[in-house]
Automatic annotation (TrEMBL):
Residues 17-132 form the Response regulatory domain. It comes from Stakelama sediminis. PANTHER family: SEPTUM SITE-DETERMINING PROTEIN MIND HOMOLOG, CHLOROPLASTIC (PTHR43384:SF6), SEPTUM SITE-DETERMINING PROTEIN MIND HOMOLOG, CHLOROPLASTIC-RELATED (PTHR43384). PROSITE patterns: RESPONSE_REGULATORY (PS50110). GO terms for cellular component: cytoplasmic side of plasma membrane; cytosol. The modification 4-aspartylphosphate is found at residue 67. One of its GO terms (biological process) is phosphorelay signal transduction system. Residues 416-426 have a biased composition (Basic residues). Keywords: ATP-binding, Nucleotide-binding, Phosphoprotein. This is Pilus assembly protein CpaE.
Amino acid sequence: MNAPWTPGRTGQREPFTAFVCDESSADALRSIAVEQGWSPEKVNKGGLRNAVQSLSVSASPSILFVDLSESGDPLNDINALAEVCEPGTVVIAAGQVNDVRLYRDLLASGIQDYLLKPLNPEMLRDCFAQAQATLSAPKMAEGGNEHPHCALAIIGTRGGVGASSVATSLAWLLSSKGERTTGLLDLDVHFGTDALSLDLEPGRGLTDAIENPSRIDGLFIERAMVRASDRLAILSAEAPINAPIVTDGSAYYQLQEELRHAFDCSVVDLPRSVMVQYPHLLTDIQTVVLVTEFTLAAARDSIRLLSWLKSNAPQATVILVANRVHPAAQLEISRKDFESSIERKVDYVIAFDQKLATQAAKLGRPLAEAGKGSKTIAPLVSLSQQLLAANEDEIDGDKNKAGKGGSLLDKLSALKPKKPAKQNAK
């Protein structure tokens, strides 16, 4: 399975982390880390097992060094690392097994380099130079896609601001007016309304994916997503409220990756709770549409979310949309005071239209479809046009495009140089 992906910016990550099994290797790595300007404290004891445990609760570094000496089956055990290692990370492994077949198999699995212990300074310098060159090189997609992928996340500052309504409308506009194949992913597993807004049954696809992440591939996406039209499909759920969702977030991330492969555009309806718990879901998101309202509580949370996004998704363009806006006399806080408090402008204002909202609900249609030609949806149309224009600018500017990769290890492999660094493996 070869699903294209867009490498996330590595600037917000730690530049280097290592997990080794012996003090001699740790000393060698600490010395080189100091030379490179990295923190020697990022050299940890514990090898592959400690790496998996640590990366399951923290962001992956730009360069990851793992010691496989205590692994009885390196090729099999490396799959556990793939489950927690984010795309964009260059992985270097070391071990005591001097076997050409193992060396080749590890490179094929996505590891950039395999070093034979004991480690020496010259070997490490060469290897890290290759890793840094890989990180600096542009990642270009193979194949001739007409459009680079457009990845959006829709986040509400408060419950009830209508983020899901904006998500379904944008997905419909991108697919119908923009003529782009669009995948809509509703991550409110228990109470999502995106399928309801499209008059569709959500199906079991999303809950199946969460329960069995290993099943997620192109064929699964094709079968699990529910079609709303020729160009629009949705993946959502209506999980029993007495069944808590148990996941480390890997299934959500893999679903995003597969949507990038299957569609021109992906729209993720991302609840705040999911965003906070799994910040890596925003790693490759190009645009975040932050939906708010003109209230004091929304102003407070807009400030907090804008700050959070600046730290956790610096690569994303944030578009602020005020939704369901009542006449000025009925507002809790004026637009001017709202913008002053959050220290930025609101990009789009969507008026509250009770008649249109009721009509859309009765028809089982997105607001943008039910209100064709209405002034109420004009801001949504303008926003969709802005998103498509930015996507076209990406083509004209020949920016970085998606590389090939299916599993997370495949994505690591996409960053592998054409010629491996020189080794002392026999």
